[in-house]
TrEMBL record, chain B:
<dbReference type="Pfam" id="PF00005">
    <property type="entry name" value="ABC_tran"/>
</dbReference>
<dbReference type="GO" id="GO:0016887">
    <property type="term" value="F:ATP hydrolysis activity"/>
</dbReference>
<dbReference type="GO" id="GO:0005524">
    <property type="term" value="F:ATP binding"/>
</dbReference>
<dbReference type="InterPro" id="IPR027417">
    <property type="entry name" value="P-loop_NTPase"/>
</dbReference>
<feature type="domain" description="ABC transporter">
    <location>
        <begin position="2"/>
        <end position="227"/>
    </location>
</feature>
<dbReference type="InterPro" id="IPR003439">
    <property type="entry name" value="ABC_transporter-like_ATP-bd"/>
</dbReference>
<keyword id="KW-0067">ATP-binding</keyword>
<dbReference type="InterPro" id="IPR017871">
    <property type="entry name" value="ABC_transporter-like_CS"/>
</dbReference>
<dbReference type="InterPro" id="IPR003593">
    <property type="entry name" value="AAA+_ATPase"/>
</dbReference>
<keyword id="KW-0547">Nucleotide-binding</keyword>
<protein>
    <submittedName>
        <fullName>ATP-binding cassette domain-containing protein</fullName>
    </submittedName>
</protein>
Length: 255, 296
């Protein structure tokens, strides 16, 4: 496995596209959107913006590792490298690990770089580094795991790129990573809340076996989740509407 | 010795190999020929363990190590890291077979010398010509000194010099006692390099054996002549078929036919520009057995 691992690390170091997507672009976006959202006209305190943008972009850009993984695996498959390696004594798991581990490391480096950048340039609060470290490790395995699943499922590189953009950027908007959540319209905030709740539900439900890993079960579970979420959402909305009107009534009577 | 026994392979309903039996003797080169879709590629993928779900067996009595360690597979595609140097690629494949340290370095030098890239080890593969890439592709499969080498059309799209170099590599491997399985569409190449040939059509072996015997079995020697005459003039000498600028006659007694032809021309004062014994060719056998129609 070490031969494939070392080879992949060397390839990653030489890959300019990877350096751009994983390291340069996140830094540029962090600086750019910090400047935009910190503008006085936007009306948010500078400290809050950085504290939202830096971790948000660390998560969002970690999904871009999927692009690199799709490229690596699809190219290997297209040029016949996978078949050729299958003729050698290299076990298939060693090939998979050898290609996967460097990408896990890249995401960890990227996340660390963004947090250090945030700490040094924007002085973001960094109160529990241990927890952030553990979450970063989970994040690395999640995004590269998704990348691996995508890389072995898609037939072409372009298909992989399109799905990554959809998951990365679309997911970032819906999850409130793209910009501070307070700036978004109510409907987006609600979708963001729903998406995060759904992600959390599956992050727990799938590993412990509440929901079996098949399409029918996932669809049924999602439907059930939507119904329960809608009931709670409607209940809370009605409750707060009533609180709001009673408070307004109280103010009117006071005047 | 390597043997494939009763190999059958299906993709869904489609049968791509049907009860294929072949035996490859040590130190010989075995040519696999056949039109596209004949099953050569699938058979090679089974031999090199890329395909593992098939009926039948692949047996080797060469040594006790696993078959994968004995085989060097040279695919038709250039399967290498193009942005890396020739040395890096060779080292990668060497390491996959467990080579390291001084042994790895020694094999690296050996391979570079064998493939004629001794002075190009530090250059990136993307700067190589097609022929250099093909030779490096071969070198990668030879790092571990395999006793069986499977080559899938290794001379596609390269210049005559590189092709000659590859022929030399094959000759060298044969001399070292290596068993070679060589798939190609170039019949003259198979004739030049191989000791045995197997012809495949629709997943079955329709003919196999020592090349000389196959040629003898399916073709007769021919006499080729070019001169100032037309075919009606040959009279009782036999039937001559027009070919290129002259005529070709198949005969079991080529020397006698040539002698008669010379006498006939002398008697009738006919000028002869060219008269030669035409060697039977594998391509003629191939066309006579498989036909010359295009296949989809």
């Amino acid at each position: 496995m070490s031969a494939i691992l070392i080879n992949e690390i060397k390839n990653s170091i030489q890959d300019r596209g990877l350096v751009f997507w994983m390291f340069i672009l996140p830094l540029l976006f962090t600086v750019l959107f910090n400047a935009i959202f910190s503008n006085e006209k936007v009306g948010l305190a500078n400290h809050d913006v950085s504290a939202s943008i830096v971790p948000g972009y660390a998560v969002m850009f970690s999904f871009f590792i999927m692009i690199s993984m799709v490229t690596v695996f699809v190219k290997d498959r297209e040029k016949g490298m996978v078949a050729r390696l299958a003729s050698t004594p290299l076990p298939s798991y060693a090939y998979l690990l050898g290609k996967w581990i460097p990408h896990v490391a890249i995401v960890m480096i990227q996340t660390t770089m963004l947090f250090i950048f945030g700490l040094m340039v924007y002085n973001i609060p960094f109160e529990n580094p241990m927890l952030i470290g553990i979450l970063s490790i989970f994040l690395s395995f999640t995004t590269t795991g998704l990348g691996l699943a995508l890389a072995v499922s898609v037939k072409t590189e372009n298909m992989g790129l399109a799905i990554t953009q959809l998951v990365g950027l679309g997911g970032a908007i819906l999850s409130g990573l793209w910009m501070p959540i307070d700036l978004m319209p109510d409907i987006i905030q609600t979708i963001s809340n729903f998406t995060l709740s759904l992600f959390t539900h599956y992050a727990v439900a799938l590993p412990i076996g509440w929901v079996p890993l098949d399409l029918k079960s996932i669809l049924m579970s999602t439907l059930l989740f939507v119904i329960i979420y809608s009931i709670f959402w409607t209940g809370y909305t009605l409750y707060y509407k009533r609180v709001e009107s009673s408070m307004n009534e109280f103010l009117d009577n006071k005047e | 010795m390597l043997a494939v026994n009763e190999i059958t392979k299906q993709y869904g309903e489609k049968v791509v190999l049907k009860n294929v039996n072949l035996t490859f003797e040590k130190g010989t080169c075995y040519g696999l020929v056949g039109p596209n879709g004949a099953g050569k590629f699938t058979l090679m993928k089974i031999i090199v363990s890329i395909i593992t779900d098939y009926k039948g067996s692949v047996d080797s009595s060469l040594s006790t190590t696993s078959l994968k360690e004995q085989i060097g597979y040279i695919p038709q595609d250039i399967c290498m890291e193009e942005k890396r140097t020739a040395n890096s690629n060779l080292q990668l494949f060497g390491k996959l077979y467990g080579l390291k340290g001084k042994v790895l370095e020694q094999r690296l030098k050996e391979a570079l010398t064998l493939i004629g890239l001794k002075n190009h080890g530090q250059e990136k593969v993307q700067t190589f010509s097609g022929g250099m890439k093909r030779r490096l592709n071969i070198g990668c499969a030879l790092m571990h000194r395999p006793s069986i080498v499977v080559m899938d059309e290794p001379t596609v799209g390269i210049d005559p010099q590189s092709r000659q170099q590859i022929y030399n590599i094959v000759d060298d491997l044969k001399q070292k006692g290596c068993t070679i399985i060589y798939a190609s569409h170039y019949m003259e190449e198979v004739e030049r390099l191989c000791d045995y040939v197997a012809m495949m059509v629709h997943g079955t072996i329709i003919e196999e054996g020592e090349i000389g015997e196959v040629l003898q079995k399916y073709t007769q020697p021919s006499v080729y002549v070019e001169g100032e005459f037309n075919e009606n003039e040959f009279g009782t000498l036999g039937t001559f078929i027009p070919k290129n600028a002259g005529y070709l006659m198949q005969t079991s007694e080529p020397l006698k036919t040539m002698e008669k032809l010379i006498q006939y021309c002398k008697r009738n004062s006919i000028g002869v520009n060219r008269l030669e014994l035409a060697r039977p060719r594998l391509e003629d056998v191939f066309f006579s057995m498989i036909g010359s129609q295009l296949r989809d």
